[in-house]
Amino acid sequence: MTSVAGSLTRRLLTAALLIPIVVVAVWFGSAMMVGVLLGGFVLAGAWEWAGLAKWPLLGRCAFVAALLVGISHALITDIGLMYQWMPALSLVWWLSAVVWIVAYEREKPVDSWFRGRVAHVVIGILVLGPAWIALLILHQDPRTGAAMLLTLFGVIWGADSGAYLAGRVWGRRKLAPRVSPGKTWEGVAGGIVAAMVIAVVAVWLLDLGVGPALGIVLLCAATIPVSVVGDLTESLFKRQAGAKDSGTLLPGHGGVLDRIDSLCAAAPFFVVGTQLLGIGV
Questions:
Q1: Under a CB-based contact definition with an 8 Å cutoff, are residues 221 and 196 in contact?
Q2: How many structural domains comprise the chain?
Q3: Are 155 and 223 in contact (CB under 8 A)?
Q4: Domain range for residue 234?
Q5: CA 261 to CA 160: how far, in whole Å?
Q6: DSSP symbols for 141-186
Q7: pTM, whole model, 2 decimals?
Q8: Which of 23-32, 113-122, 204-213 has the lowest mean pLDDT?
């Protein structure tokens, strides 16, 4: 119990430090500022991803440098047309990840899936790059961009926190015991409840019409399971690597990748959803 309380305390302190920085930057900052800030998290995640892939130091540096070049070019071109399609493309990867997770849980011979340096390079780019681009696309709208981006962050943070607390208190039935033994259906339910409360409050504050407000709430509800896929996918890669956490940078949370894995799957899905609904983007 003491270790659980200590872990929760560290999580809360880390969140209390980082969340205000992100919120202030998103609300008051320029597109360039938001892109640089979120790009920093992506590059830290890239470093940890290369570590999970067990690349040598030179390979890790090269991977991070390649993403840095891509981020810089995207910022200079203001997320031009060559980048706009990437969130939709990444959904193909996340659909493949669902198949991988289900097959692994059913004890199919899939341990060798997505191994090898080429696979890790491609998947690493598809996990990190489109998520970053999706967040900036969401932020671009001059009227509702900042509010929509904070809504997405709030929904994902709420789902993560609600799942953590509900799982600790009521968790009994395992969600995916082979992939991530600590996750439970009760935790998922708690995350959904917390996230939907945040979504409803957000659309109320946005003061949208009934149609757009309902569309955003339903989109948030659909985004939460997608965020769980992101979490489980990283857990499966960590299982392949024999690692508990992706890193140690964030006390109580593990690595940066451990904190953004849900968002990496959720952000492209959410942005594509807003585009299909014609809301804010």
A1: yes
A2: 1
A3: yes
A4: 2-277
A5: 11
A6: -TTTHHHHHHHHHHHHHHHHHHHHHHHHHH--SEEETTTEEEEEHH
A7: 0.92
A8: 204-213
